[in-house]
Amino acid sequence: IRKAGILEMIPVSEGLEDIGGLDNLKEWLEKKAVILKDMAKAKKYGVELPKGVLIAGIPGCGKSLNAKASAKLFEVPLLKLDMGRLMGKYVGESEANLRQAILLAEAIAPCVLWVDELEKAFAGIGGNGGGAEVTTRLFGQFLTWMQEKKSAVFVVATANDIMKLPPELVRKGRFDEIFYVKLPQKKERRKIFEIHIRKRRPGDLQNLDIGKLVEKTDGYSGADIEGVVKDGIENAYVKGKPCVDTEDILTAVSETHSLNEVMREDIE
Ligand code: ATP
């Protein structure tokens, strides 16, 4: 399973402090961390064991980042399940792969199991043909496991398009909560700029007009903002400047804006 890249252990360095915005999600995860820290105590108190969370929303807005940060917060390993690679060529192979992946995750528990691009895995549910049948069986297997799960495997499932997910999956009882991440608003963009500038050029933060950068990046995702910060730093370096200034980053913004718009139209 691990050799085939179906289940992969992901090293984690990002924490909640590396995420700008998404305050509700971060607060929710912090509450779950208290429970997961001493599950025996929580259970004795009558608290339900957390099952997991579904995070949906457009690309580049911090879904993967949250999967990683939750493992760091819970102080447990992060396992990533690649649903695309799970599908085998032979009869019953996909189901056996999923069973093995689950067994392995349960053996490693406590851990976070990150199921990425959930909607891709379960596309074609209820359709006709061999592929659709396997998908439907796999889906049933996954749902049953989620519903009956007693182990300390906290599932973080991420999906771009919640509309493509089968309704059974988003019904209560499967995930503890579903969060929808949107494009960052002004306050969040400010935080995201600060995080990425502080990571690379902490000394320049006070010289930069973050307010102006925020104004000029309406419609940018977190990943877009990270991109303009990186490009802005590169601009300043290539010019031989000792510090990065607002103009360097604004140049990067003006160069990427049209590309972002083209890509976003594609997604929509
Ligand atoms: P995808 O659906 O494409 O996987 P995603 O929503 O999972 O997208 P991430 O992989 O979390 O997006 O984001 C990509 C990168 O963009 C992150 O590694 C991070 O550096 C930056 N980023 C995105 N959102 C945020 C945020 N809210 N705060 C700080 N950085 C962010």
UniProtKB/TrEMBL annotation:
Keywords: ATP-binding, Coiled coil, Nucleotide-binding. This is Uncharacterized AAA domain-containing protein ycf46. Belongs to the AAA ATPase family. Highly divergent. The chain holds residues 225 to 492 of 510 of the full protein. The keyword Nucleotide-binding applies. GO terms for molecular function: ATP binding; ATP hydrolysis activity. Residues 49-185 form the AAA+ ATPase domain.
